[in-house]
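Input sequence (244 aa), recorded before submission:
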Amino acid sequence: MELLLFPDETMQLQLESLLERSHFQQADEKTVLDDLLQDPVQATIRFPEDRESLRLRVTEDVACQFISRLNISRHLNPDLLEVLNHYENENIRNRIKVKMRNSRFSPADEKTKFLCLFFEKFDSQDNDIFECLEFALIFLDEPTIDKDIYRTLMAKKKFYFRSLQKAKQLENQLQKHNMETLLAQGKRVVLIDQRDARNKMRIIDRIGRTVFGKTEYFEPLDSGEERIEFGPRHKVQDIVRTLT
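Predicted structure, token format:
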């Protein structure tokens, strides 16, 4: 038997349906390990650029790590499974399930409801569904997550927005003073990846509009903390009145 040293996405996709049907528990991992090691197992190490591969005998410790990385005892919430199984494309379904199985966030009622709504609102053919899902899973794993998912999501967007504002202020200050002078003046110097921050804001807007039907926009730092929120129920007159 040959085994890739670490399970890649292709292997996980092939195994996902089996793992879902088997519904392994943590206590079953030892049984799976024993079954796997009944015959001599070799791991194939593939080098880049299609060079020759290297086969190594797999020890019990390595096989144990391999099984652990598959997360065979982690299962999706039944409500999530029901929503996902409405996706016609099996490959898309399994890719999503693999990402969920490999994610670190701890399920909770509010998070599960949000993800159910996420998969109801996002079409499986949307080009950015995996980009948005990856962000959402990392976001849901944060310890500061609130029961009000939308409010926490907008707070995250506000954090990125304020960080970009401060980065612009820093750029303006650096046109007049060097970094050493600013530090000597007690200025806080915060460096961020501005492209990444803008991309995260774009993803948050996409999730907000798709899942909740709304998003929020914020005033620059020198204009206070007021925020403007537009949702699908807002009338044109209300929007004009807000902006004037």
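Checked by second reader. DSSP finds eleven helices and five strands in the chain.
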